[in-house]
Amino acid sequence: MKLPLLLVLCVLILGGCATSESPSTSTASSPAEQQTASWLFGEWTEDFGLAGAGSTTFNADGTYTGRFYSTKGDTKPEATFAGRWRLEGQTLIYELTECSDPEFLKANALTKDTILKVESDRFTYEDGNKNPSVMKRAKPGPRETF
After folding, report:
1. How far, in whole angstroms, is CA 44 from its chain's centroid?
2. Average pLDDT of adjacent 10-residue blocks, the chain of 146 residues
3. In the chain, which end has fewer C-beta atoms inside a 10 angstrom radius, N or C?
4. CA–CA–CA angle 23, 28, 34 (5° rounding)
5. Domains of the chain: which residue ranges?
């Protein structure tokens, strides 16, 4: 069951630095109206069905961190990973540089995925095997009030 999960997680693992290009959004009608790669900054979650769940945070400096939980609702991740990412047109390119479980994901893996649709709270992508997946923007946690 780790192989399908590996494919999905590889999509989360991005390498390099963010570029000024971005995929078309459902509301953008010309390149001038398209957003920059900054739409991707922040934390995203993904449901892997029976395999578990995960989250990835894309940083403005071109790095990312991620966590995979083998069971939804787990408080301790089965694996953590990090790397570099960039966006070239509609292609997410990511390179894994470290993983807490080398059997789970191998360092220096380079993956390219195609962004199919971008919405305000989610994006749909397709991996190299043409498998579609959806990542949802993580909801911010409750803030403390003083």
Report:
1. 6
2. 38 35 35 60 91 92 92 79 93 91 76 91 92 89 52
3. C
4. 50
5. 2-137
